[in-house]
Design brief:
Layout (H helix, E strand, L loop, with lengths): L1 H18 L12 E3 L4 E5 L5 E7 L5 E2 L6 E2 L17 E5 L2 E6 L2 E9 L4 E3 L7 E3 L17 H8 L3 E4 L8 E8 L2 E8 L6 E2 L6 E2 L8
Antiparallel strand pairs: 1-2, 2-3, 4-5, 6-7, 7-8, 9-10, 11-12, 12-13, 14-15
InterPro entries: Chitin-bd_dom
Keywords: Signal
Protein name: Chitin-binding type-2 domain-containing protein
Length: 210
């Protein structure tokens, strides 16, 4: 009986470990990062998710397992949005709400400062995205759909990622298969800012960036 309880305890800890994995964090095992419940990106050598967004097959979710996509809901890696921790929950990439006894307090939702994102791993709630803080919520579960963005632009090339005051990302739009498509890229560490003027990554922070 004691052995069975110990095994059950180990399994529960493993499940909690999977469910507590954040969005946008590169896995050392797979070199991929879950960017939504069903999507992932490859990671650079300095552990930054970048490039095309891949979608898991039907009825599977992005996980931290070696297979990347899993049908087990307990292994979903990007599922911390709107989940209360000790005293707050991230409600968006740059917003949070206060919690009481495991529930969000009504009308107690706030925004992070410009250039900051909400992370459940921080006691300060919000941190600077330019210095490497990644949000607990998905950028791609929000209204800013990359495909719709490029459809609106109807032009090939690089564009600043919308509503990103840190200026760390850009969207590369292209026309393929009779439709406008786009991929999201992060600027490299050596040149961490995307200039809306020159449309390239630069080491100099643009004046409109935080």
């Amino acid at each position: 009986m004691l052995r069975r309880l110990l095994i059950l305890g180990v399994l529960l800890v493993a499940q909690v470990g999977f469910s507590q994995a954040n969005c946008n964090i590169c896995s050392s095992a797979t070199k991929k990062a879950c960017v939504s419940k069903t999507q992932y990106q490859n990671c650079t050598t300095d552990d930054r998710p970048t490039g095309p967004i891949y979608t898991c097959p039907n009825n599977t979710y992005c996980s931290v397992t070696a297979a990347v996509c899993s049908a087990t809901t307990a292994e979903i890696a990007c599922a911390e949005c709107n989940q209360c921790g000790d005293y707050f929950a991230c409600t968006g990439t740059s917003s949070f709400a206060l919690c009481f006894q495991g529930s969000v307090i009504p009308n107690a939702t706030y925004s992070c400062n410009p250039g900051q994102v909400c992370s459940k791993s921080l006691t300060t709630i919000c941190g600077d995205s330019a210095t490497g803080t990644v949000p607990s919520c998905s950028y791609y579960d929000s209204a800013a759909e990359v495909g719709n963005f490029c459809l609106t632009k109807a032009s090939a090339g690089r564009f600043p990622y919308p509503n990103d005051p840190s200026c760390s990302r850009y969207i590369n739009c292209f026309y393929k298969g009779s439709a406008w498509n786009g991929t999201v890229w992060n600027c490299p560490t050596a040149k961490p800012y995307f200039s809306s003027t020159s449309l390239i990554c630069t080491s100099t922070k643009p004046t409109n960036c935080t």
